Every structure is written in C-alpha cells, then in structure tokens.
C-alpha cells in the first residue's frame, strides 16, 4: 500500500514536470519571433548568404535562441522538398520566411500570401513571378536581387580570351534566374557577331555529360548564376579545363570552384542587406512596402590556377582591378 502510494506520487510528479516543461516550451515558441529559412541546395554562395544573413541579424541584436528562433531547412536540390518545407513553415505559423535563391522563393510565394517573405539573391524577381514591380512589390513579398550583366562578363571574356565566335550557355532550363541572363546574352550576341549554343540540364546528374558535349562545339563556356551548375561547378571546371575551353560564370564562388572569371556581386553584402530588410519587417513595416534591393557594385573575380592551366596571361590592368584572385 505504502509502496504504491509512493509510486503514484512519483508518477504525478513526472506528469506535472512534463506538463510544466511542455507549457514552458510552448510559451517560449509563441513569444519569440520565428524565422524559417529555406534554401534550395547547399552550395558555397548560398551558404555565404545564409551565414552573412544570420550574422548581421545577430550584430543588430537578433540572435537565434536568445530573442528570435531560426529554423533553417535545406531542400537538397529537390522541388518537392521545397514545397514540404514551406508548407511546414506556414502550418507552424512562423512569423517570416526567408527564401534563399529563386526556386525557394517561388515555392514560398506559392505557399502563403500572408506571412512576410524576404527572398535573397533572386536574379530576376519580376521574370520569376516573385514581384510585379521592383520598387513597389506589394503584398507579402520583398527581397534582394543579384542581377548581373551578361554584357559585362562577355566584355571581360573579350579582354581575356578574344576571338571567340561560339559561346556555350550552360544552365538548368527550369531555373528562371538563369534564363533571364541567357536571354540577355543572346540579345547581346545578335548585336555583337557571336553565336550562343544552349546546353541545358534538368538536374545536377546531367551536368557532366552536357558539359562534355558543349565544349566540343564552342570556343568559350558561359554559365549564369545557376544553382544546379554551381552545385556541380568542380566537374564543369575540370571538363572545361581538360578540353582547353575557358569557362566564364556568374558568381565569385563559381570562379573559386575553378571557373576562369566573372563580373559579379559580393554575396556577403547581399546577405547582410537581406537581414536589414528582415529587421525592418520585424519592426512593423509591411514587406510589400519595401522596394527590392539590387547590388550596384560589380567586381571582377579571377582564378589564377585556371588561367595558368589554360595558358592564359591575364593583363596586369585586369589583375589590378580584380576584387579577388583565387589560386
Ligand atoms: N541568383 C540565384 C537565384 O536566383 C541564386 C544564387 C546566389 C546563385 N548565388 C549564386 C546561383 C551563385 C549560383 C551561384 O536562384
């Protein structure tokens, strides 16, 4: 009798403690502003953006686990995963969704028209259907864009490896961010006497074969700011370098991973600017009232090892202008 009473007491105590903890956890979750970060895939540039975003929030006094909650989810390059993640964020009633790269943002926009969405590094927000007007996004969406100029990259290619007539455009045909840049490239080609050959992939498993075929038919390669190509960039660079074909790209990380050169933006700054927009929203501004931010400053990034492999001498003038030279 005494024993069972004791047992009963212990059970009650455990039950009470469990209730107490559950109560606590719930209260905490409800109190703290919760941000869901969704990222299509992990490649160096998107990881830089995310890290910089989180660091800037913290520098401005918003730290994960202290006064805000950040739930980071990686979709591993899969569209279905993206939709599942965004649905979970909406079902959990998170306070904000931060969507890194265009596919993540398109999925988030499809998932909610209430929860504020801040997209990050979307090359063509209007063409990708994220906002109708860069200056007045309206609704629950705003963010940062990493639009680059195909023309500037081609002019750099003319300085480094002149005389090309055929440019191979390597990208994933379902990434609207890439299509925007490839269309600009084609318009520029039509006026400047070179031809563009499209080499499209639908997933990272196709990248190597498409690159192998493309380098046989072109003088230089051009890959825009494409997430699928960026994820497989070491393979692309090796294939291009083995074939003696210079590979121009859309982002610094792709140069670091073996591409020859780009005129691109600084993604650490872009991540920090995305955080500043998130803070404005936390402080009560409606997302739709904040204009989409683009990066004005374009920098030259070069890969010296790739240049040496291809036997290309980079003029001093360009070396001196470069923001970063990867070895
Ligand atoms: N701009 C890409 C998009 O709109 C995302 C991105 C950011 C990216 N940095 C990159 C893609 C570097 C490839 C390489 O989805």
Q: CATH topology of the largest domain, what is it called?
A: Rossmann fold
Strands, count: 13
Could you tell me how far the N terminus lies from the C terminus, measured between alpha carbons in angstroms? 78 Å
Radius of gyration: 24 Å
Give the name of the CATH architecture of the largest domain: 3-Layer(aba) Sandwich
Number of domains: 2
- The CATH class designation of the largest domain is Alpha Beta
For the biggest β-sheet, the strand order reads: 2-1-3-4-5-11
**Secondary-structure element series:** HEHEHEHEEHEHEHEHHEHEHEEHHE
Largest sheet: 6 strands, parallel
Alpha-beta content class: alpha/beta
Note the topology:
Layout (H helix, E strand, L loop, with lengths): L1 H30 L1 E7 L4 H16 L8 E7 L4 H13 L4 E5 L1 H10 L5 E4 L20 E5 L4 H11 L5 E7 L3 H17 L2 E7 L5 H9 L4 E4 L3 H5 L1 H11 L3 E3 L2 H5 L4 E4 L2 H16 L10 E2 L4 E5 H7 L5 H6 L2 E3 L1
Bound molecules: tryptophan (TRP).
Descriptive tags:
Rossmann fold; 48% helix; six-stranded parallel sheet; 327 residues; alpha/beta; binds tryptophan; 13 helices
In short:
With 327 residues, this protein is α/β, with parallel strands linked by helices. 48% of the residues lie in helices and 19% in strands. The longest helix has 30 residues, at 2-31.
What does this structure look like?
The protein is of the alpha/beta class. Helix 2 crosses helix 11 and helix 3 (79-91) packs across helix 4 (102-111). The protein has 2 domains: 32-146 and 266-294, 3-Layer(aba) Sandwich (Rossmann fold); 150-264 and 299-326, Response regulator (Rossmann fold, 3-Layer(aba) Sandwich). The chain is elongated, with a radius of gyration of 24 Å. The protein has helices spanning 2-31, 44-59, 79-91, 102-111, 150-160, 176-192, 207-215, 227-231, 233-243, 252-256, 267-282, 304-310, 316-321; strands spanning 33-39, 68-74, 96-100, 117-120, 141-145, 166-172, 195-201, 220-223, 247-249, 261-264, 293-294, 299-303, 324-326. Strands 2-1-3-4-5-11 form a 6-stranded parallel β-sheet, with helices on both faces. The structure holds tryptophan. Tryptophan binds at residues 45-46, 101-102, 121-123, 146, 177, 225-227, 230, 251, 253-254, 267.
